[in-house]
Amino acid sequence: MFSLRKLFTLAVVLYTPALGLNNGLGKTPAMGWNSYNAFSCGTTEAQYRANAQALVDLGLDELGYQYLNLDCGWQGSNRNSTGGFTTNSATIPSGIPALSDFVHGLGLKFGLYSDGGYFACGGNTGQFLGSLEHETEDAVSFANWGADYLKYDNCFAVSPTDTVDYNPPFDDHMAAMRDALAATGKPILFSVCEWGVQDPARWPGTNFGNSWRMSNDIADSWDHVFRIINQVVPITQFAGPGGFNDLDLLEVGNNGLTLAEQQTHFAFWAAVKSPLFISTDLTKISPEALSILQNRDVIALNQDGLGQSIRFRRRYTNAYDVWSGPLSDGSTVAVVFNLQDTTRDITFSYSDVGLTSAVVSNVITHSSSGGRTTSYQATLEGHGVLVLRMSDGTPSSPPEFTFYEAADPANTLNGGASTRVVNSTVTVVGFIGNGGTLTINGVDGGTEGGTKLVSFDYINGDFTYFNTDCSNCRNAFVSVNGGSAVQVQMPISGQSWDILFSGYLVSLSGFKPGTSNTIRISNPSAFAPDFFRVGVEN
Ligand SMILES: *[C@@H]1O[C@H](CO)[C@@H](O)[C@H](O)[C@H]1NC(C)=O
Ligand SMILES: *[C@@H]1O[C@H](CO)[C@@H](O)[C@H](O)[C@H]1NC(C)=O
C-alpha cells in the first residue's frame, strides 16, 4: 500500500549523509599494524609477534597504533569435521588463541582477516578458507579467539574458481558478516575490503562497515599513491565517525617511495581520515621513516573528533594540489603537495581554501607563523607536502561567475563532440578530445578582460584500478580566444557517468573586454571529461 511514511523514510535514506556503522566502534579511524605490505600472505607467527612487540617497544601503541592485524595466509585450507574455521599451522604454529593472548598481553588489540567469498585472496582455489555461507559460525569463532577487528576481503565472491568478479553481491556478503559479528555481542571493528569496485562509499546508509576500501591495492610507488588520491576526490563527504574511506595500508618504511613521498602519503591519509595501518617490518624500520609515523600533530589530524575528511580544493596542473577540511576546534587543515618529482617553491594562497588570512602552524616542522598571514611560501621536495593548521581564519567572499552551459546552441561542437542528457535533468557535452572539440562562444570578458578565474562543472566517470598516465583523472586542454592551450587535469567526479563535479577552478589569461571571447576545450590524444557548464568570473 502506498504510504507517505515510506516515502519519507526513503527520502531520508537517500539524502542523509554518512552515518557509519552504528556499533560504537571506529568513531575515529582505526590505527595499528597489518602485515600485508611487508610480508604479503606469507607472514609467520614469529613476524607477527616481533611486530606486536615493536609497536610497544617503539612507543607506537601510545601514539594510537593499537591494533595488531593479521592479513591473508593465517587460514587453513579446509574446515574441520564440524565445519569450523581452521588455522594454517605452518604459519601460525601456536594457533590463533595463543597469538591473540600474546597480543592482548602487550596491551594491544587483535585483528583477524577473512573473506566474503568461497576462498580468500592471496591463494589459489582451495588454498585459504573464506567465510561465505559460514558467516555466523565464523563470527563466533573469531569472537571466541579474541578478535577486536575483522578485515573482510572479497576474492572468489561468486565462484570458487574466479578470483575477482567486478559485480558480485558484495553488499549482501558484507551485510551477512556485519550482522553475524554484531550477533556475537563482542565489539569487533568491521573493515570492508571490496577494493572500491562497487563504490561502497555510496552504499545506502554507508553502514556496512566502520571503514571501506575505496580503491584497488596500494603498492610501493608514487603512481599508486596518486591513483588513490584521485579516486577519493568524489567521496570525501562520506567519511565520518563510525565509517571512513579506507585508502589502504601504509607504505611508510618500505623501499619504493622517497621520504618526502612517504611524508605526503602519511599526511594525506591522516587528513583524509583513512585508517592508518603501518605495514612495514618494524624490526627494521629506519629512524627517518619511524619519525614520520610518530608525528603526533599529524596523528591528531587523523584522530580529530569531528571525523571530517579534507576535500579537493584546487589542482594547479603539473604544479601542486590544495586540499582542506574542518577540525573540531574550528580550525582548518590545509594539505598542499608538489605534483612534480623535483623540488620546487610554492606560494600557497589561503584564498584557495576560502580564507583571506589566518594564523597558521606548520604541522610537519612544528613552526608557527606568529601573526596573521595571507599566504605561505614553502620549498617542497619532489611530491613533498606542506600541512598547515589554520586558526582564526577570515572567510573570503566567494567569487561570482557568469555561467555558460556547454550544450547551449550558441556553442560550437566539432569532430564528434556531442550532447548527452543525464538523469533527464542535465545536458552535458561529451566526446571532447581525440578530435572532438567544444567551443563556448560569446563569453563576457567584462570591461577589462585579462586573467580570470574559470569554474568547470564536469562529469568524469573514467575510474580505474590500475596505474595509467592519468589514473582516475582526465586532461582537458583549454584555450581562450585561440591562444595556447592550458592543460587542466581533472580527477574523476564519481565511479559512474552521472555524478557532477562542480566548481573546478582554473585561472586563465587572454580574455578581451566585451562579449566576443571564446573558450575552446580539446585534447589531442585522449578524451576529456564531459562538460556541463563553464563559469567565468565577473
Ligand atoms: C571445529 O572448529 C570449531 C571452530 O574453531 C571448533 O569450535 C570446534 O571445536 C572444531 N571441531 C572439531 C571437531 O575440532
Ligand atoms: C543522477 O542520479 C544519480 C543517482 O540518483 C545521482 O547520484 C547523480 O548525482 C545525479 N546526477 C545529476 C547530474 O543530477
Automatic annotation (TrEMBL):
Disulfide bond keyword on record: yes
Q: Which residues form the Alpha galactosidase C-terminal domain?
A: 318-390
Query: What does UniProt give as the signal peptide span?
Result: 1-20
Is the keyword Disulfide bond in the record?
Answer: yes
Determine the domain of life of the protein's source: Eukaryota
Question: Which reaction is catalysed here?
Answer: Hydrolysis of terminal, non-reducing alpha-D-galactose residues in alpha-D-galactosides, including galactose oligosaccharides, galactomannans and galactolipids
Give, as one word, the top-level EC class.
hydrolase
The Enzyme Commission number assigned here is: 3.2.1.22
Which InterPro entries does this entry report, sorted A to Z?
A: Aldolase_TIM, GH, Glyco_hydro_27, Glyco_hydro_b, Melibiase_C
Keyword terms: Disulfide bond, Glycosidase, Hydrolase, Signal
Q: Which CDD domains match?
A: CBM35_galactosidase-like, GH27
For this chain, the family text in UniProt reads:
Belongs to the glycosyl hydrolase 27 family.
Query: Per its record, how is this protein called by name?
Result: Alpha-galactosidase
Native species of this protein?
Marasmiellus scandens
